Amino acid sequence: MKVLHTSDWHLGQKFISRDREDEHRLALDWLVQAIEKEGVELLIVAGDVFDIGNPPNSARALYYGFLRKIIRTNCRHVVITGGNHDSPNMLDAPRDLLQMLNVHVVGAATEDPNSQIILLNDQNGKLEAVVAAVPFLRDQDLHRAATSDGGQERIERIKEGILSHYTAIGDAMGPLAKLKIPKIVTAHLCVTGAEASDKQDNIYLGNTENIRADQFPALFGYVALGHIHRPQAIGGMKQVRYSGSLIPLSFSETKDEKSVTLLEFQNDKLDKISLLTVPVGRRLKTIEGSLEEVQEKLESLNERYKDELAPWVEVLVETDRLVPNLNGLLHDFTKDMHLEILKLKVKNEHQSLDMQMPNEQLEDLRPIDVFRKKLESAGRPPEDAEELVATFRELETWMNEKNN
Ligand SMILES: [Mn+2]
In degrees, to the nearest 5, what angle opens at C-alpha 187 toward C-alphas 382 and 136? Predict the structure, then answer.
């Protein structure tokens, strides 16, 4: 059986006030073609389908448009789980309807492991694969994480909760465990040893590791991970993998090649793992150097990607003198170029001046960004700050669900 694993689409992402609809459409169109070409029979999306709990209608249209195309292909089953960015209720709302089309959605986990164990039948009604579709586990899903606990103790309880959740999933597999069919489990979290791209800011509880690669029940032939945007196998186990995000989602991901993971099962055995590279719709580039070097690099960038969407560029100018109106100067310089500067920083020995271009407006920032800035200016230590950010995220999700 051919299975394709992807995650972290973040549909509806706003990137420094720009939307990513064009890139997402290109990537999803490519994905439909790849699924057709490779003869994929089961598609797994391991969380963070959307970037926010209440995504814009254009992002929802992309999602449903993609599903409409997929159900007309050879792909017999789709399994989608919720990530920390998704609103479980929003994902689950069309669940019963989608199930009629063999699209299985698990937005939130319940205490009953069987609510996450999805049995997939072939055209003749014979069981052909099992996916334990475990979404991102929120505090309230884990029961053990009492909110009144302090930092480290709370993190330990979350870890225990996650481990016991997966143990229960393994136990609930019961007689299914012996069947000679593909058995896959999903997770949306940070596994020990995972490497994030430099500044990926979407991490739950910072880089707190939630579980080790070898702690997932051994009966599963593959662990389909989501959450970290860089594709990688974990803990030296090739069958425990992050597929990585579909498109680069921050300037820190510009060096990562984006891919989806193609799995080939012979009965219950994982026979082959290969990566399919996602063609780049739009490059995110970081360039740095003196003003002259930056201008040279901008010129060559202008020439290089003419047949793609205009690259978005983060510029870091190193200078020992004050350049008046650098912002306007570079804006004029790149006016007719096939690129756009979204972020401008100046590194100066005498002063450290941070500029955002266009000027950072409150409306361009996500609430979480404002909250982080507040924490920064209040001088909170990083461990402390991550804890508060995690709590803030929970609050956001709760509010989103209330509003939906
Ligand atoms: Mn995530």
Answer: 60
